[in-house]
Automatic annotation (TrEMBL), chains A, B:
GO BP annotations, alphabetical order: proteolysis
Record-given protein name: Carboxypeptidase Q
Lineage of the organism: Bacteria, Pseudomonadati, Bacteroidota, Flavobacteriia, Flavobacteriales
Subunit description: Homodimer. The monomeric form is inactive while the homodimer is active.
UniProt-listed InterPro entries: CPQ (IPR039866), Peptidase_M28 (IPR007484)
One of the record's GO cellular component terms: extracellular region
Organism encoding this protein: Lutibacter oceani
Amino acid sequence: MRNIFLALSFLIVISSCNKVKPAKQLAQTVNKADSITIKKIFNSALTNGKSYQWLDALSNDIGGRLSGSPEAQKAVEWGENLMTELNFNKVWLQPVMVPHWVRGEKEEAFFTSSNEKFNVPICALGGSVATQKDGVLGEVIEVQSLEEAEQLGEKLRGKIVFFNRPFDDALLLTFKAYGGCVDQRGGGAKVVGKFGALGAIVRSMTHSIDDFPHTGAMSYGDLEENQKIPTAAISTKAANLLSEKLKENPSLKFYFKQSCKTLPDAPSFNVIGEITGSEFPDKYITVGGHLDSWDLGDGAHDDGTGIVQSIEVLRLLKLNNIQPKHTIRVVLFMNEENGLRGGKKYAEEAKNNNENHIAALESDSGGFTPRGFSFDINSENYDLFMSWKPLLAPYGLHDFDKGHSGADIGPLKNETISLFGYRPDSQRYFDYHHASTDTFDKVNKRELELGAASMTSLVYLLDNYLN
Amino acid sequence: MRNIFLALSFLIVISSCNKVKPAKQLAQTVNKADSITIKKIFNSALTNGKSYQWLDALSNDIGGRLSGSPEAQKAVEWGENLMTELNFNKVWLQPVMVPHWVRGEKEEAFFTSSNEKFNVPICALGGSVATQKDGVLGEVIEVQSLEEAEQLGEKLRGKIVFFNRPFDDALLLTFKAYGGCVDQRGGGAKVVGKFGALGAIVRSMTHSIDDFPHTGAMSYGDLEENQKIPTAAISTKAANLLSEKLKENPSLKFYFKQSCKTLPDAPSFNVIGEITGSEFPDKYITVGGHLDSWDLGDGAHDDGTGIVQSIEVLRLLKLNNIQPKHTIRVVLFMNEENGLRGGKKYAEEAKNNNENHIAALESDSGGFTPRGFSFDINSENYDLFMSWKPLLAPYGLHDFDKGHSGADIGPLKNETISLFGYRPDSQRYFDYHHASTDTFDKVNKRELELGAASMTSLVYLLDNYLN
């Protein structure tokens, strides 16, 4: 479209957004100074933002950074150097031992049906064991759920089990569709391993019908060593093809080969920086994301965007001469993807040091256009947070909902702390999540910057109104 | 992020969204049946949508479709055949003569500064004349506005004028930034041509700093033939480089060559289909987008998405057994980009036939995730439309604002008609707008489908509550 007059219509949007909010809410904490400060924060993020160039470095110069890898160590050094250059009051590394799983050689997979051979894209799931050196070959049993596999029990012995329950496209929020399927990835091998299956192949966790397998964490739980079977994700296109061919030929043979393994735990770090509070230096507001990523892409959306947005929160506060009353900490958590060791360690140390954490915010849902925040808080603060809606609605932040905040900050949970999750639009997230397609070019500069500004605005309000 | 519990948090979003709305609004037209119907519409769009595969055909099988081109004619036939297959009650072509501008050979441009040669990406603006056969070479004068050029007046004679005012990144809504710059593209050549400039080079209309020139319409207004000078868009990266080199060397020479020309007007068509109303067959609700596009990309976002969404509106009504009371028309408007002839013709014919158009909706802002609708209506319907917010907010539709609706439906404006524009998120739009990057792969299937469902829901409510 070309029409320049269209532009004028949008002038009205911001001014009219507040009309949406009940007047009684407006009464509470909203005031002109807050709305001016928040406008300044958004202006500076959009005109003088640094998050995009930082993400370029993290994604393109370092790339995928699986826990325990040399790239993860490079990311630790990158984060420490960046925060030092930014002159935060304190910058340090918090040691943490992390799981060290390696993928090994590129996986191979195919199936043969009526003398035709179909090569299919797969990738080992994080934590899986290798196949035997020359791979695994077997007949396939397709199932739609862990329950169905349990019921088949002994019938699974010697078979390759194919978990193929797809995302429910009807669900508006893609994380809900993910939550409805991911048990197959996390627990499939555990369920069928105990019945002597040869392997578990899991449909990739995405709405998109394409050729990219999506990896992710899995667990064998308490299985004995000899029950631990290799497990891999298969692309959705290949999953549909396999399912179709199985209907024609139930006895077709599937082959896959992977050489992944788990090495001894490796030393790593959470990277921490802070601006010391002017009034309550011993009360902490933490903002963060996770520094580790899967290895197939460069971890741009998961969770490079959360990392650079979290660092940008502190820079935008300084840039706008906002001296926080409380100590504002940014934490680049290590090992969210396959262990959560960084999040657990940070909470453990906070407890050991009797640190009073009053709030924490995590960004780990991608660097997409802002939609709102989820919060996990005690009821007494509910009205306070809801009273901020009129301040944030003009920036597209309408979803203020109770719910999960973030995996890394979850271990900080107690009776008093307020936990928040940044919630961007979710529609594109699972096109890229844990796949080779999660790359820097999928991130829009302005969407990333609007997210950083949204997070900074929430931290500003928390610092101003929370005690 | 991997955490499956996160998913659970989103369960709360939809149920809580309605809380946002003042109770007095809920009182009016909102009722359970509407909310059930709208849920059905969204479910069917997401689980059984056709818009994405239609867009694949329009974008990849036909491609860019400039008015008067063979591709535009193919698009007309494609639209007529598709609507015929969909068994709409009536499908027909409405003849309209359109401007026929052709780009000719690929443009060439470079500048030389201190014996260094810099090739730069440019593209002719729609409607521009060609350069002389061997191109144009001249010194450059950089300006930031039409006013600055006017003031320079005679100083522009024999020079190439470089309009380089960039988008204002601080503006939240990208259409507003576009509106603040596009006068340079539309009117630059007209202003400097009358002072004897050799050519006008205009900074591309985008936030993105990249190598892709963005074309678009321009006009010479009432200039005499000998005052009509060639004009082209230059990529933002090249514009920044040229500006930088001009500071070092104000007398550097810029060269460009283009062979575009305007042929005699060509015959073309608006493509129209309708579902006849059961109660008020002579009252019309029109939904549409524009079938023509620029030629550099495949016109996926501008406006292939609006085309397939508009057709999908009628299909989703039929699929959900919603028999409209009023006649619902879909119009694939021809020639929005460089003439608006289709929109004018449709309004003219509607008037000639004394058709009573009660409402019209246009989608021409890209196929991105839903944000809301703009409306251009008389005050008596304002409260009615605002009362629908609680029904649409659960689907991310929060922005209900007075303003411009759409270029193609604009000519239908009168005292009584209600005009609406579909408003998706605007952040990514100008990365692709009128450039070679406006291609099918930039469209997310679910975002496109959510837009079609949003439009269908509005049409359903208009049909139900408007008289």
